[in-house]
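User: what does the whole thing look like in 3D?
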Amino acid sequence: MTRFPIRRRVLLGTGAASLGLLASGCDSILRAKQTRDVLKLGQAMSLGVQRAILSSQPLAREFLSSQLSPVFKVNGTRDPATEEYRALQANNFTTYRLQVDGLVHAPKSFSLADLQSILPRSQITRHDCVEGWSAIGKWTGAPLHEVLIQCAPDRSARFAVFQCYDSLRASRGGMTAYYESIDLFDAYHPQTLLAYALNDAPLSVGHGAPLRLRVERQLGYKQAKYIKRITLTSSLAGIYGGNGGYWEDNAGYEWYGGI
Amino acid sequence: MRPGQSHPRAESSMSIAEGAAATTDDQEGAAAPPKSERIYRHAATTRATHWINLVCVTVLLLSGLQIFNAHPRLYWGQYGANSDQALIAMEATQDRQGRLVGITTIGPARLATTGLLGASVQDGHLVPRAFPVWLTLPSTRDLATGRNLHFFFAWILAINGLAYLVFAYFSGHLRRDLYLRPEEKHLRHLLADVWAHVKLHVPRGEESKRYNTLQKIAYLSVIFGLLPLMVLTGMTMSPGMDAAFPFLLDVFGGRQSARTIHFIVAWSLVLFAAVHLFEIFLVGAFNEIRAMITGWYEVKPEKKA
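Assistant: Here's the predicted 3D structure for the full assembly of 564 residues, as structure tokens:
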């Protein structure tokens, strides 16, 4: 029965060689564009399936005030610290104007008082960071769909793009403005807010004063802070890196942050 | 057992997969005495889903550790972030000389794990890292690729797992090979089986044609316990899935509890794999691995008393 040891040696040799190749080659394989494109299929499937099971637009879980996080972690930009932002801060955001434009028939600008005059919604929800942590906070703001309806969106509009006052390091060097985008499926969800208060106090600078997005069925990087302008578009191509957000362009995060 | 000779226990379909039995001595001439028998142990579907599952679980573990490294703290409950009490954490601090020290915290216990957990060497330097470069995919910090890998292979794992379950149910594989027979459910039998494992007893002959009781329990816990738990706790971490299936949050006690369970069950699967590999090498790795590749298993004759 000599054929077993020979086969065994061949098997072990092939196994060891392929393991070595695997270990050294993994990172370069993962860097290849073809691999990245294939791997993104999993995310595309998740988007398709989640859109199907969320088609009835169920609400994200809302919690009790006894379940609030003692400390709501500040993440991302802590302070935009630009001259433009400092000027707004100096007069307590009374000169702040939210621009809504793009594929709308009635472009409009809203002061904080305008936004606060829209029937507000408050919700105690969980914020989930892509890194893994969660914090529960009470958000109060104007439902985004109420704001959009006032601007009469065109039928061709598909995305709401949020441009922000803060800038972060770009992967190609230098700084680039933070921006994010969601599609109208999420923009018209009843829990999607332009929030101006956290835990019954006006938003702090760390949490995105004067206005931030809450899109409760998605991860933290979608919750744009320091919103300056909302533009409705039919496509994300041509906007900054074309992937629909700062993290999507600069770190490869998926545009859909539902998982 | 000679070819053509019937064996009462073999006929009562105790083999792992239904199929023909052949003897190796067929090729070696009638003059040689019968030494061992070959049985068709694993069906093609079992073999294919086994190896696909191995690839998926491996990539999911390594990419999962990459994702864990992005926030190497685990909590219990609905929320949990840096200022909240962690159940398990793998973080770096500095000692009095200003050198980096890896600290692993498990409940009240604090362990110095520099070099492996909390802080380890990357490109020649000690850096803060929960799990070291050789345990994560990609090796260096890249959460986006880690997540893309994780979710791609999670889909394959789920589809492969469902295919296996449908096959195993309808082919009778579950009922025939995996479910415990009535006599196996007695404590005395279980204890005897535990003792046989402690003694590292290697089954031969008829006994080796079927899974032993502890082996069945281990496989059933992975198939119906650990792997479904991984899928469900993984889903609970998705804010979209939580909106669609809010009961997930109630079942696992919150997103952060689900993340902790996901981590613990992942290492339970690693423990299973370690014991599984040990047993394979104990009873004969070549024969076992060949059976899982070709389906054919060589049954060693029983030793004469």
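In plain terms: The first strand of chain B starts at residue 21 and ends at 23. The radius of gyration of chain B is 24 Å.
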